[in-house]
Known about the structure:
Elements: H1 2-24, H2 27-42, H3 49-62, H4 67-75, H5 81-95, H6 100-104, H7 112-124, H8 131-137, H9 143-155, H10 162-168, E1 175-176, E2 183-184, H11 186-197, H12 204-212, H13 220-231, H14 239-247
Antiparallel strand pairs: 1-2
Helix pairs in contact: 2-4, 3-5, 4-5, 5-7, 7-9, 8-9, 9-11, 10-11, 11-13, 12-13, 12-14
Amino acid sequence: xxxxxxxxxxxxxxxxxxxxxxxxxxxxxxxxxxxxxxxxxxxxxxxxxxxxxxxxxxxxxxxxxxxxxxxxxxxxxxxxxxxxxxxxxxxxxxxxxxxxxxxxxxxxxxxxxxxxxxxxxxxxxxxxxxxxxxxxxxxxxxxxxxxxxxxxxxxxxxxxxxxxxxxxxxxxxxxxxxxxxxxxxxxxxxxxxxxxxxxxxxxxxxxxxxxxxxxxxxxxxxxxxxxxxxxxxxxxxxxxxxxxxxxxxxxxxx
Length: 254
């Protein structure tokens, strides 16, 4: 009788351990199924605003369970640029600061869309630790990416790169047209304003000379903005009055 009871106890323990083992292995198939289901949605050739909005909501609602699928979408060019853009922002939103090392790698991705998405996501996360990537991106082949890198440096107040911003004004790839007929792109006025926000005072004298030149008449207000930020002085409202105002400080206002 005691032998039968002993065997019954052993059998019960074996069955219990088997059930526990099955319980512990359940999450893996569940995660895999979630990943496959989300990837199926990302694989659809529908880039309409309505579909992308719905996909974004679904992705964010999954939280960390969406991350394996998002990583795959970002890494593979079989997915559309809009889907990869969405995935980049989503992984930043879900993982927060933990995603920084991964996202920062995309600031030098061959696809400019992903470089841009990476920079925008890093800015949204207010990440100054990736500042060297922002500095390098100031010379990116894509004007839009350079603009974003400039915005990251300006918005995050990375003053140590103000000199690099100043150098942008002289880079020929920030101009369009043939030599001798080149015109400034929008990034020049943005860079000049950023100099003010970064309070790059070594540029004061040069900016005062620029504002006196008719050649820079189209960006007088941008130069004025920067000088006002650097000097804490406010010029008159009219353009000609602004030029005359700064002309009084030939040696650069204190």
